Amino acid sequence: MSEEFRQREVQCITPSGLHRLAYTEWGDPGKRKVLLCVHGLARCARDFETLARTMADEYRVVCPDMPGRGLSDWLKNPMEYQVETYVADIVTLLARLDADCVHWVGTSMGGLIGMTLASLPDTPVQKLVLNDVGPVITAVSLARIGQYLGMAPRFPDFAAAVQYIRVVSATFGAHSDTEWSTLTEHVMRRQADGSYRLHYDPAIAAPFRAAKVDKDIELWPCYDAIQCPTLAIRGAQSDLLRRETLQEMAARGPRAKTVEIADVGHAPTLMHADQVAIVRDFLLGG
Question: Could you tell me the residue ranges of all domains in the chain?
Answer without folding.
Answer: 5-138+217-284
